Fold:
Amino acid sequence: MKWNLFFLIGVIITGLVISQDLIDKPVTNAGELSVDLNTNNLVYNFDWGHTNITIYKAFANYTIYNKTTGKNKTMYNYTLLDYGANDVAVNKVNDKWEFTAIDNSLSKNELGRYKLVINSTEEMIHTYNEVNETYFYKYPVLYNYHENPKDYWNEFRHIFNYKYLCSKPYSKCEWIWRGDSTELYFKSYNLIEDKSIVNVSNCRTLDVEDEYYQLNTSINSAVEEECILIKADSVTFDLNSYSITDTTGGAIMIWSSSDYAVIKNGNVIDSSTGLFFAILSSLNSVINMTFDSNGNGLTFYNSSNNNVYNSSFIDNNIGINFLYTSKSNNVFNSVISGSATNDVKLLSISTNNFMINSTYDILKENVDATSYLYRKWYYRAYVNDSCNNLVENANVSIYNNLGVPQINLTTDGTGYTPIYNIIDYLNFRGVRTYYSNYSINVTHNDYFNITTNYNVTLEETNLKDVNTFTEPNITAFDGLINCSCNWNFNNNQNSLPNITFFDTGTLILNANWSFAEPRHDITGETGCSLIIKKGVEWI
Structure:
């Protein structure tokens, strides 16, 4: 499919019975969506490949007796669902692509057993969700990516969401995932539907749960209330690089108790509030948004556990507002600049909020006497030795300026630790407490420990804090010492084996060595100098 950014595909099986006269003129091709009548495939073509969805119907074959349950179990064969041109359609209904297929072999109120086989030219990542409302069910969600499949916000992806198929009490969904293919087994009545993206071109309410809405034009609004109102869970609103300008009211509101919304990829300009999180809305995400010249760029109002990623807040009166018990919200990788009054403002018991790797004017940080805010930056250690060898499995322990342990990290095969969100300061009720200087303690069995001081306030984000071992454990190196590393030996080492120096350079012994046996010795190549400031002892 050729959508500019993300798009959603969900194959949906409903429990409704419809007649052919409710379907518009059947077609076998409608742009990106098509039906191949030769193979009975639903075909989704996109720039880098295709996905085929094939529908099979089950027929009873034989029964076996289950000794455990004492019941007979019917075994089924699956054959292609036989539908013709008059039983399939691809239509656009209410700005939404919809595929329909009818199994005319079923009589009214008769359930059929089916299997969908989803095959793709690209890898599919598998997750699933569980719902326990009036009855329990679960359903699979498949993510099909073009590049970098582990990146959840990859720009090129399909989503196959089977909630509607599995949400009926008779569906009984089961599935087998095999990477680039999935088999989904279910029961249904005779209407098969496939629904895609809902386009948005004017101010409106987005109120369908799990729906993917995409802006297809910029909106200039003068309505006194919110232009876009989100009133359902799990709504995705993709602005698709367009803008919403609202000179009278607010641009976007997430309604009270609406959760799991995603707002992304666009601009909000000249509104009273660019984006408003209403009371008890939570677990929402803002991604790659720009808020420019608004009264308030973003306001959390008794709204908690939300995340903001890679967004800009430019020339607003207030960049980000945390109001009235808004708690545990995170702002990542964002920039706030040019605010008339405050870049960041926290009022009325807004606690445990985090600004992470985000830049703004600290003089425009306003935290009242009931709230608090953490500021953090990204930290990643890199460990090597004096020979410039990366060191794997080094332990990096971080302590704040009070000596309180913060975290233990371990280097991988690249010499790097995972990225850690290290605290710069806590602004508690308007008073900042800084955590620097940190003490970074690095250990490895092959070397003697190193400890350095680290100032987060000065460094801010640092993805390569180099920590270098300067003294080897001679026994761990089997007595083979590279002179070109110019090691400094400052720690006593005992029970040493034979020591052999190689290559050229200068080594400084500022400690005591003792050998395990009198016959052990020190040998070396010409060009390697050992400056002995203390002693060498044979025992």
User: Anything to note?
Assistant: The longest helix spans residues 163-166. The radius of gyration is 32 Å.
